[in-house]
Every structure is written in C-alpha cells, then in structure tokens.
C-alpha cells in the first residue's frame, strides 16, 4: 500500500475507531508474529514496517507468499467459517508496529462501519490478482524478467510512480528469489542486470526502482524461460 493510501485510511473515521479498540504490538525484525497451524483469534493491521507471509510447501520447503507493508491487514482468514488454524506463518521483515484486533471486536466495528469489510475485501482481491498474474506470466519468463515482475509489483504496492527519485525497497535477495521462483544467487544476478539496464539502482540492501522503468511492460518470453 502506498503512503498516500495509508494516510487516507488513517484519517478515516472507521479506522480511527479501530485504532482505539485494537491493541498495539511491536515486532522486532525477524520476529514470528503468527505461526502456521495455531488457532486464529485476531486480525492484524500494519501501522509501520513490513512482514512476510510464508508456509511450508509439499516438499517441506518454505514458500514465500507475499510481502506486506503499512496499511495492510493480515491474519484475516480466521474471520471466515471453517478456518480452525492459521494457514501461514508471518514474520517481521523490519522493525514493525502492529494493531491487533480480536475477531469479535472487528466484526462489531463492521456493524457500524461496513467500509472496513470493503477495505479488507479489496486487499484480498488485490493479493489474489497479484498471485494469479505471477502464476500466469512467470512460466513464460526468464529469471531476470521474473525478478522484474516481482520488483515492479512491490514498488507499486509501496509507492508506485509518485516518487520522482525512485521507490526504495528493502527486501532480501532470498525473499525475491522465493517470490520469483529462482535461487538467491539468480535473484542477485538478475538485479545486477536490471541495474545495468537502468531500471533499478542498488544501494547495499536497498533496491531503488526508477519510476520511468515502471512504465515499461514486462517482456513476454517463449518456453526458454530459466
């Protein structure tokens, strides 16, 4: 979510009331906030920082599903019938401040403020669209273009083209590789190629995505994808 969108939510009467009824939580970088399989009791809203949503795949390996930022909800699946356990593990990828809202509190708030449901549903729809896009496009792409697809998606989530100096992303090469279905080493090589092409600049662990590059569509490749 962009800073503008988060600012909009923070001024909304429904969210201001949610902030008053929720419980503030702090998470250090690397701290596990939710564990796959645990009983779900609360919804979370990111006030600042970022988190990674991950689960174990069929082979027992860690699969990264999404990176989330300020203004995003997570832990929402427990609101729906038939969800007796957390479906994923969530860990903080940066020092983060969170709002924990027990499910009964959130449901009570939605009776007064139905737009809370609309915001949550909108976020779920965007995540599903993002996953569908990756599943449809990535098998056709080489590793570099898969990395660019993920980087451009993350940049749009946190700021889009609004910043003329570029959109800074602090994301591990390992996490980029998991999102793009390639190794950490391949992700690092792809980022260097993108830097050589002028689409990003690399500043230590920070990837700065240049706004003009976000206007360039991801090239479609044939079956030779890496």
**Computed CA radius of gyration, to the nearest angstrom:** 18 Å
Please work out how many helical segments DSSP would assign: 7
How much strand?
Answer: 15-25%
Distance between the ends: 30 Å
Order of helices and strands: HHEEEEEEEEHHHEHHEE
Q: How would you describe the shape?
A: globular
Notes on the protein architecture:
- This protein is α+β, with helices and mostly antiparallel strands and about 230 residues long.
- The chain has 2 domains: about 5-135, Sandwich (Jelly Rolls), CATH 2.60.120.10; about 140-215, Winged helix-like DNA-binding domain superfamily/Winged helix DNA-binding domain (Arc Repressor Mutant, subunit A).
- About 40% of the residues lie in helices and about 25% in strands.
- The strands form 3 sheets. The protein has a 4-stranded antiparallel beta sheet.
- The longest helix is centred in the middle third of the chain and has 23 residues, at about 115-135.
- The chain starts with a helix and ends in a 17-residue tail after the last strand.
- Residues about 220-225 have low confidence and may be disordered.
């Amino acid at each position: 979510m962009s800073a503008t969108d988060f600012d909009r939510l923070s001024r909304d009467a429904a969210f201001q009331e949610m902030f008053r009824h929720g419980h503030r939580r702090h998470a250090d970088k690397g701290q596990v906030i939710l564990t796959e399989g645990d009983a779900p009791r609360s919804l979370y809203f990111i006030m600042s920082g970022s988190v990674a949503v991950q689960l174990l795949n069929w082979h027992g390996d860690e699969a990264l599903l999404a990176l989330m930022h300020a203004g995003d909800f997570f832990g929402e699946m427990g609101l729906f019938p038939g969800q007796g356990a957390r479906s994923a593990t969530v860990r903080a990828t940066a020092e983060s401040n969170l709002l924990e809202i027990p499910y009964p509190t959130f449901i009570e708030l939605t009776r007064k403020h139905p737009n809370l449901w609309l915001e949550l549903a909108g976020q779920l729809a965007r995540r599903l669209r993002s996953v569908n896009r990756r599943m449809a496009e990535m098998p056709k792409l080489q590793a570099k273009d898969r990395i660019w697809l993920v980087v451009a998606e993350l940049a749009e989530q946190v700021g889009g083209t609004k910043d003329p100096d570029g959109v800074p992303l602090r994301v591990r090469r390992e996490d980029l590789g998991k999102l793009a279905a390639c190794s950490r080493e391949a992700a690092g090589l792809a980022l260097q190629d993108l830097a050589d092409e002028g689409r990003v600049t690399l500043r230590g662990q920070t990837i700065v995505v240049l706004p003009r590059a976000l206007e360039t569509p991801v090239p479609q490749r044939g079956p030779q994808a890496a």
